[in-house]
Design goal:
The structure holds two protein chains of two kinds. By secondary structure, chain A is α+β, with helices and mostly antiparallel strands. Chain A is about 30% helix and about 35% strand. Chain A has a four-stranded mixed β-sheet with strand order 1-2-4-3, covered by helices on one side. In chain A, helix 1 links the parallel strand 1 and strand 2. Chain A is globular and about 30 Å long. The mean pLDDT of chain A is about 95. By secondary structure, chain B is an all-alpha fold. Chain B has helices at about 5-25, 30-40, 45-50, 55-65, 70-75, 80-100, 100-115, 115-140, 150-170, 180-195. The longest helix of chain B has 27 residues, at about 115-140. Chain B is elongated and about 65 Å long. Chain B starts with 6 loop residues before the first helix and ends in a 5-residue tail after the last helix. Classes of the chains: A alpha+beta, B mainly alpha. The interface of A and B includes residues 13, 16, 49, 50 and 54 of A.
Amino acid sequence: MSFDAELDAKGLNCPLPILRAKKSLGELTSGQVLKIIATDPGSVKDFEAFCKQTGNELMSSAEAGGAFEFLIKKS
Amino acid sequence: MVKRLSAEQRRATIIEVAKRLFAQNGFHGVSIDEIVNQVGVSPSILYRHFDSKEKLYEAVLQEFSCTRESYVETIVDDDIGFETVLRGMTRVFISSIVNHPDLMKMEMHSQLEGSTASREFFLNRWKSFTDYIEYNLTELQAQGKIESINVKAAGLIYQGIIRELLLTKCLEPTDRFSETSIDDLVDELITLFLRMINIKK
């Protein structure tokens, strides 16, 4: 799936990946997609909650090789 | 007639009792016999649920991590100001310990005796704060908003302040701070911390 910006949040504990994602989303325009890679298992629940509260769309959330990958479309 | 517990209820009861005993006496200070005696089951029933004492200890930690604190709300409602987020995160963390003081007691025991797994578990909880502090202070320095400081040391100072606060207010309450609420004390300590790193004049 294509994306417009990528954020590497590997090795960081929540809430830092969320904060950095919020910042990156701020630099995108509506409809653009941000890809985030994180390793904190807590990030799965946190990104769900973040998108629910901010209205951005969590397009996908997947695990591969010990890392978690999220695609978020800016609202 | 004594109502028989379902396997799931039995497992939950064993975890509850083990949590209390591990918090009181640490991992090495508790035997399987003690746990089964207090639960009122035979060792074979315990081993049906948990292969070993290590596995039971891990299950207790696992349960704590299910109730893991979320800092999302703190961030969403804020304009990403370092001070406000740090205060919000700290309040969330403190209330999680106030609600689960056994977790703090287990952490204290694990400092002395801990297995790698338990050390990692407890370190990881603090890492949310040290990561946040290190990242933001590095950024503030790059922007020239604060003087150059050792950001790792700043994280350690913060961790020390909050851990000591938790010991003082949650585990060994003393008269010295009996008239200050935990929230007020948190606010004051964070203000002192911010002054120390030259963020607050």
